[in-house]
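Case study: Methylglyoxal synthase.
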Amino acid sequence: MSPTVVLIAHDRKKDELVALIQLHFALFSDCRLLTTQATGARIAETTGLSISSTLSGSLGGDLQVAAQIAGGQVNAAIFLLDPLYAQPHEPDIQALLRICNIYNVPLATNLATASIVVNSLETEATS
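Here is what the predicted structure looks like once written out:
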């Protein structure tokens, strides 16, 4: 069964996320991709990949993603945060990060850790 990977990025990080996806296109094309609305739209339009989207993060999408994590439906999460700007829905973001920790779901919040998560998924896919 294909892994489900959460892909979310704050606005100033969306280009970095798209570049990561393009670099590892073969992996991501074999995954179920779960995103919030704006991130999903950007990924779909630039890569052509099939996306499952929730609401926008600020409208509860982060919490919808967290619910899927709590339900055991997610294998890994990449959420590229922009630490230089406050987000109006910060409590929802913190809830999503907390749920990843509670349910032991690998979580990357920057490109360095995203590369580690991607490498792990690629290793699992070939074994």
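For the exam, be able to explain this: The beta strands are 4-9, 32-35, 52-53, 76-80, 107-108.
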